[in-house]
Amino acid sequence: MADPLDMRAAVAEYVTALHRSYLAQADTHLPAVRGRMPLLAGGPLTVAAVGARNLHLIATREGLGPLRGQEVSVPGSLPGLEWSLRFYDPVVVPALGLVDERDGPAYAEVKHALGLTTVVYHVVAQPGSGLTPHHAGHVGSGLAAGHTSADRDFEAIRARVRGREGLVDELVGAASAGLPRAQALLAKAIAPHNAEIDKLVATANPDPDEIRKTLLASVGGRRDWTPKAPA
Questions:
Q1: For residue 9, which phi and psi values (nearest 5 degrees)?
Q2: What's the whole-model pTM score?
Q3: Which tens digit of pLDDT belongs to each residue from 44-93?
Q4: Strands 72-78 and 81-88
C-alpha cells in the first residue's frame, strides 16, 4: 500500500503541474480571454482529491467548510493562481464507499458525495504512470484549450441570437459552474425548435461540449453567417 504522505505529495505535484500547464496556455491569449477562463476567474479555489475506485480531482469555488476529523488540506500556488488541495476518501466521507465505479468513473456520484453542485474542472487521474507531471501537463493544456474554445463558441452564439443575449450569458454562467442540465435547458430556450437540442434535453447526463457545439451549429457555426429572412 502506498504511503499516504507520498501519495499526497504526488497528487499535489500533479495538480501543480496541471495548473502550470493551464497558465502557460492561458498566457498565449488576450487579457480579456484569460480573464474569462474559468480557472482564472478569481475567488477562492479548492481542489478536492477524492479517492474512490478512481482518483478524482475536482476544482470548485464552493466552500467546503473547515477541516474536520481526518481531513487534510495542502496549500498550493503559482504566479497568478492560488488553491487549497483537500483530500477525501471513504474514511473521511463515508458516502464515497457507496460509489460504484466498476464500469468506469462515476463523475456525478462522486461530486454528489461531496455535496458539490458546481465545478471548475473534474478530471480523473490513475495512480502510478497516470499520476505524473508529464501527464498532468497534457491534461492542463487540454483543459485550457477547451475553455478558450468554448469562449469563442459562446461569443459566436451571442452575436447571432438577437434579443436572446441574456440567455447566452446565463448559458456561459452555467457552463462555468459545471451545470450540464441547466446548459441543455438554456440551449433549448435559445433555440426552441432544434431537434438535436431537444434530444440533449431528454438525455439524463447531457455532454456540455455537445450542447455548445450543437447550439453553435444551429446558428451557423463560427463562419460568416446571417439569419434567414422571415418567410
A1: -65, -40
A2: 0.76
A3: 999 999 998 889 999 999 999 999 888 899 999 999 999 999 999 999 99
A4: antiparallel
C-alpha cell at 128: 502510478
Residues 209 and 176 reside in one and the same domain: yes
Both 36 and 112 in a single domain?
yes
Beta strands (DSSP E) in 102-160 are 121-125
Q: What share of the chain is helix, strand, coil (3-state, %, to 5)?
A: 50, 15, 35
Question: What beta strand segments (E) does the chain contain?
Answer: 46-51, 55-60, 72-78, 81-88, 121-125
Q: Give yes or no: residues 15 and 90 share one domain.
A: yes
Tell whether 125 and 173 lie within a shared domain.
Answer: no
Least Cα distance to 206 among 168, 172, 180, 170 occurs for: 180
CA 34 – CA 40 distance, rounded (Å): 7
- The position carrying cell 496541471 is 18
